[in-house]
Recover the amino acids of this structure.
């Protein structure tokens, strides 16, 4: 370990700044990556991680500062330059051509040919080599890539990135769409690449992944590099998860969520043996009026699916759902809203917002019949209702007619929250309520959630952000592989305790880093 | 080194500013300014262009396309398309005339024709909404079978009806204004009201902007889609009645390729083919631009084939400007 630390850095970024209009996206950032290390980058959305990665991979030119590979200054004027210098990047979203075969995908842009005529045999041989190189021996190069699972497709992408003598591999939230077992496979591969002396930059929001994988962690906030911590340090220098969170947030985490507990009412939601007939459930649980219950677990544990079953977005196979003692049979979102269930979907942009429409229309969309008679809208009433909601949520918008596209992530999320509040539900399901919003808006959203609960609403939060779930909830429901595996009191639960239930690995904490 | 790479990878600020300014200008006055400029140009080139008679002539000549385009606008806002409007026009016109010659009172014949159009639209909508088939394919099919039905009803021959009871709809005038123009204005007022002032209108934009979000917001997406195609079918039916009244006959070939002019008017008017964005009054201006262009070029004695070239280029140019506007809006 110590000899690794003394080697010249593989990649070094010196004093890089980048400004977009009025936003200082990166401010005098210096950062280095050693051979044989996994260096995690953490920070809120908009903290500057992605901007730095786009500079390293040749997508943006820095305003000031320089990039060095193995001690030599390099200019990354294009993605091509970065590849030549030995920097590969795996983007958050898949960049595959689903109808083309694995071999064709691997060869894109660099097809073996003779006078423009494809050499298919060579292409297959190359593909086999590249796949074997990343240990993906089970993938057939002749398969259309769209038929592979997301995890397998990502393997192919890594194989493609590795093809060009890559020394530095950047992985941008690589597990976002992977199942648990696929993620574990990826972690294995990352450890192997580390063994081979490659440098890996690992961007993630997930503390537990970073905790297990990273040798060093660098935290960004508002375009500044807050600090780098050595995860292998022991004794008094040992890093605790909360230290990292504190660096990301910039203040003590406790005041972010607000502490006061409040009186709980009667049970409002009772779920018994709810299942989709396949991977999800059966699950049984209840939520009281005024109570905030968070569902936690790894990605793919089935939390979002349970929320969608309750809301009627997907059809349940069996089970009963009772709201205020009445058995509900919800066949779709429209009925769910009418019966008193509201849901904030997981993906704001794909599932909640109408980006071309005004902020007013977005907020009022599910309650239009409240401001109309005979289908004709009463604008005055609509305007005043929306204005009242905007007031209480502190939505920052130029006017009610502003296109929702132009709002910040936090304000867009408030529009969707406002839509839910206008529905006046008895049960509110909030799926990742603070995903992709900045820290200021986060604390406001927490305040709003608390207020909603205090008004007597039953609140079911689905969150992948453990500190958040622990901070805002009264109770935690831990899910693993479609089942509820634990129910914990939030005031006494710890992140480690939750993770044990979520992963099913009940071990102590010393196994972190490489196993 | 930094200045070098910056120049290599960034669009120059000047060019970006120019694009943003153009975008701003286009947002403010947009297609309407194009219409005014076009009229001014035609007035200079062909002095007879600027007369009340010619103005009414242009308005009458665009009325049928404008009515088709109104329905088309609503469909395109939902991210759909209707290639069958020309064929619906034909079937509805034929139905109206056949009803009349078989002794149906004029008013019922007119309503019958419109209902036939609405029903044809509903069939389109049913396939699009409940079977989730692509609108392009569904309406490509109905374009063909409806044309076939129009021919079959007449056994392939036009049917002249010079005593058509409702011929006033095509040839009459209200207070000096041709009836088709009056009908067109009424249609646009109704469509504007539906799209801008009703819950259904909000739902139309929502379905086109983000169909999954619309469903999760409790909107009955399928019913909205079915209604949109039905309404557009009714508009095409009305256009068919006007057409048959104008030519005093049932014509199986009526409205061939009219769908293209209707789509052109919608796109010129700034409605996005991706759905979710569009204004009905923009479509009216778009239809007028096409009409003014045709009329002016005729007055200028430009041969027909050159007219086609100019019309096509104007459409591409207008859409290109609109696309630039959106590029500059989305910023970096």
């Amino acid at each position: 370990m110590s000899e690794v630390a003394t080697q010249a850095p593989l990649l070094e970024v010196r004093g890089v700044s980048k400004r977009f209009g009025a936003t200082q996206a990166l401010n005098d950032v210096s950062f280095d990556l050693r051979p044989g290390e996994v260096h995690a980058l953490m920070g809120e959305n908009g903290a500057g991680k992605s901007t730095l990665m786009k500079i390293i991979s040749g997508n943006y030119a820095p305003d000031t500062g320089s990039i060095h590979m193995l001690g030599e200054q390099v200019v990354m004027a294009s993605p091509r330059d970065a590849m030549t210098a030995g920097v590969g990047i795996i983007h958050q979203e898949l960049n595959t051509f689903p109808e083309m075969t694995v071999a064709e995908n691997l060869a894109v842009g660099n097809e073996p040919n003779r006078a423009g005529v494809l050499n298919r045999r060579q292409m297959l041989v190359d593909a086999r080599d590249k796949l074997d190189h990343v240990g993906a021996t089970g993938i057939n190069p002749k398969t259309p890539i769209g038929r592979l699972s997301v995890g397998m497709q990502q393997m192919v992408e890594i194989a493609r990135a590795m093809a060009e003598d890559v020394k530095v591999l950047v992985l941008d939230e690589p597990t976002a769409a992977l199942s648990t077992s696929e993620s574990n496979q990826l972690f294995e591969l990352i450890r192997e690449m580390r063994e081979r002396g490659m440098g890996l930059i690992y961007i993630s929001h997930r503390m537990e992944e970073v905790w297990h994988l990273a040798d060093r962690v660098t935290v960004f906030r508002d375009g500044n590099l807050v600090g780098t911590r050595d995860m292998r340090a022991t004794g008094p220098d040992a890093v605790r998860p909360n230290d990292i969170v504190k660096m990301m947030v910039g203040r003590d985490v406790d005041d972010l969520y607000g502490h006061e507990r409040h009186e709980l009412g009667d049970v409002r939601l009772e779920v018994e043996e709810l299942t989709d007939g396949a991977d999800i459930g059966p699950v049984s649980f209840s939520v009281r009026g005024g109570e905030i219950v968070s569902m936690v677990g790894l990605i793919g544990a089935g939390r979002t699916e349970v929320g969608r079953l309750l809301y009627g977005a997907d059809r349940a196979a069996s089970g009963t759902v009772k709201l205020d003692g009445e058995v509900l049979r919800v066949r779709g979102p429209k009925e769910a809203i009418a019966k008193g269930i509201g849901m904030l979907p997981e993906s704001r942009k794909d599932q909640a917002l109408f980006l071309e429409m005004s902020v007013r229309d977005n907020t009022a969309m599910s309650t239009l019949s409240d401001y109309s008679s005979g289908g004709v809208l009463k604008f005055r009433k609509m305007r005043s209702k929306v204005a009242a909601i905007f007031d209480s949520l502190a939505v920052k918008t130029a006017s009610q007619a502003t296109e929702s596209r132009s709002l910040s992530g936090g304000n867009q999320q408030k529009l969707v929250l406002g839509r839910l509040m206008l529905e006046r539900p008895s049960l509110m399901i909030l799926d990742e309520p603070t995903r992709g919003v900045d820290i200021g808006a986060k604390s406001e959203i927490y305040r709003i959630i608390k207020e909603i609960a205090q008004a007597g609403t039953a609140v079911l939060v689905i969150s992948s952000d453990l500190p958040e779930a622990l901070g805002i909830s009264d109770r935690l429901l831990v899910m693993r592989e479609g089942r509820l595996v634990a129910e914990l009191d939030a005031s006494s639960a710890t992140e480690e305790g939750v993770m044990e239930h979520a992963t099913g690995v009940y071990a102590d904490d010393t196994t972190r880093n490489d196993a | 080194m930094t200045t070098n790479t910056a120049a290599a990878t960034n669009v120059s600020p000047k060019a970006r500013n120019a694009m943003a300014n153009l975008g701003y200008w286009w947002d403010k006055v947009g297609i309407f300014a194009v219409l005014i400029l076009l009229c001014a140009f035609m007035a200079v080139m062909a002095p007879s262009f600027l007369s009340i008679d010619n103005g009414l002539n242009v308005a009458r000549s665009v009325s049928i396309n404008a009515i088709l385009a109104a329905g088309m606008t609503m469909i395109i806002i939902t991210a759909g398309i209707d290639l069958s409007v020309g064929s619906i026009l034909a079937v509805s016109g034929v139905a109206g005339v056949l009803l009349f010659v078989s002794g149906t009172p004029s008013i019922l014949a007119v309503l019958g024709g419109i209902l036939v159009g609405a029903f044809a639209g509903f069939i389109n909508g049913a396939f699009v909404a409940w079977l989730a088939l692509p609108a392009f394919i569904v309406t490509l099919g109905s374009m063909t079978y409806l044309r076939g039905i129009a021919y079959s009803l007449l056994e392939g021959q036009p049917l002249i009806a010079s005593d058509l009871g409702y011929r006033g709809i095509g040839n009459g005038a209200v207070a000096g204004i041709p009836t088709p123009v009056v009908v067109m204005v009424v249609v646009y007022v109704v469509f504007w009201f539906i799209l801008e002032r009703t819950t259904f209108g909000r739902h139309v934009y929502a379905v086109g902007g983000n169909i999954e979000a619309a469903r999760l917001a409790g909107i009955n997406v399928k019913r909205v889609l079915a209604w949109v195609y039905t309404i557009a079918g009714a508009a095409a039916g009305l256009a068919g009645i006007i057409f048959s009244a104008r030519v005093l006959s049932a014509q199986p070939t009526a409205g061939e390729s009219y769908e293209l002019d209707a789509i052109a008017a919608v796109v010129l008017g700034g409605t996005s083919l991706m759905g979710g964005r569009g204004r009905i009054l923009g479509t009216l201006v778009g239809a007028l631009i096409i009409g003014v262009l045709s009329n002016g070029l005729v007055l200028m004695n430009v041969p027909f084939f050159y007219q086609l070239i100019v019309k096509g280029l104007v459409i591409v140019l207008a859409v290109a400007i609109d696309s630039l506007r959106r590029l500059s809006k989305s910023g970096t």
